[in-house]
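# nightly structure sweep
# worker-07 picked up a monomer target from the shared queue
# config: single-sequence mode, recycle default, output format = structure tokens
# input follows
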Amino acid sequence: MCARLPVQLALLGALSAGGLSCVHAAGALHQRVYVPGLRVTAPTAPQDPLNPGNPGTPGDPVSPPAPSSAATVTLSSASLAFGQVRVGQASAVQGVLVTNSGTASLVVSSVQASGAGFSATHTCTTVAPGASCLVSVRFTPGTSGARTGELSIASNATSLVDIVQLTGTGIEPVLGLSASALALGSVTVGATSDVQSLLLSNTGSAPMVLGAIEVLDATVYQASHTCPSVLQAGSTCLVSVWAVPLVAGPAPSSLRITTDAPGSPALVPLTLTGIAPTRQVTLSPAVNGNTTWDFDTNGALTFANAGVYSVTPSFTLNVSMKAWGGGGGGSPAFTGKSPPGGGGGYASGTLTLQAGQTYVVIVGSGGAQGSTSGAAGGVGFAGGGGYGSRSGGGAGGGLSGLFSSSASQANALVIAGGGGGAAGDSSGPFVATAGGGATVANGNSVTAPTTTSAGQGASGMTGASSVTDGFGQYGSGGGGGGYWGGGANTNMFLSGTQGGTGGLGFARSGSVINPVLTRGGDVNGNGRTPANSSDADRPANAGLGGVYSSGNPGAVVLR
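# output follows
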């Protein structure tokens, strides 16, 4: 290069009054040549792209750039899997450790989580070489199903953006029902409907917690179920519903099912129609050829023949009842006086008969006519007539009534007392004792009174049997069946028309509404006509006392 200087100098002329310095490099040898009057400035040294602040030294040889230090990101995990997480609930936090494995400070400019349900928080700003910071990631699914996302970490590292893959699945229970409503149909009031079933299932992907399964109207509807407290996904259980209507007409309600599934609680409509019950009873033995009786269709049911009957209602129903006790038996035909048997008593009231319960109806028989050998009591707990060597007393009439089960004093609901039997006929001045006697409980025997007052029946349900008079010739009349059933008259010498006294009767307190009790005849034994004899429901001659004959049976009427 220095050999060519004269040409260069000729071209430059007198560019400078100074000298020229030439540097020739040959290997490691450096030579410096000075040219007087010429100054040439050396070119600027090349810049180091990795270290621009370090230019070459003027007049020094150009050197290669020095190596630069850099930040480098190392992640603790390349992916995070959150597994199954309930919809609407947050997963456990999972962390990614970000380490600066380079030699320069790491500056994190942003940390972002993408994908539905993924979120991130971090402590990363400037991370020194060799230090770490933490990124926390959480998965909160909003709907069921698999989800994917990415965690992006942007920085000044050589990688610029580092990625972590994210996965998770949202799960939730779903309540499934085999029917949207249950119809229990039309059911008679007081009766039980058929059971309707509802299959309950978990058609979702997570266990379902079951709360209350209940009907909103528990006075009409009932429910039971086989469901556990937690129903696993894909499992089923059974709910059963039935009802007993209380009144006629529609009775809507709902079945409420509480769970932790979306849309809880679920309401299943329930429908039911109550039908007015048929007022029907079953009879045994048959009454006038009927073994069943519908009050609404056929009207009043009349028991006119002496006997014991069972009555069973198909449904609970209210009935009104009227009853007449049997008439007392008269004395035998004789040449002397012949008093009649007393008329039967009357009882009425309203009662409730329960569905399926068997009740007992008794229609008292008329008292038997007196005889010298005595007259036996008939149906209805009547007292027998006394015997006498010339003329026996008539038997008392039997009670008529209704009993809650077996015919006993403890089960009595309504009783109409029977009329007292007449004392034996007399042609002489004899005083006959009172059939039925005084107030003897269940009066099966009495002591012969000596007064001339009218005889009273026993205080219990059974009419008292009479005793003979003091001379053994004329028997006293038997007491009528029923509480205070009638006795016989006591002084036939005074009046041949005095017969047995009518029975009074009984109504159980609390079971009978508006009871009416009336004695037949009168307290002096002057009448054979039963009480309330003009009632249109009374069969002809029911409860009429006998004259030289047996008394007539009583009657029971249900409506």
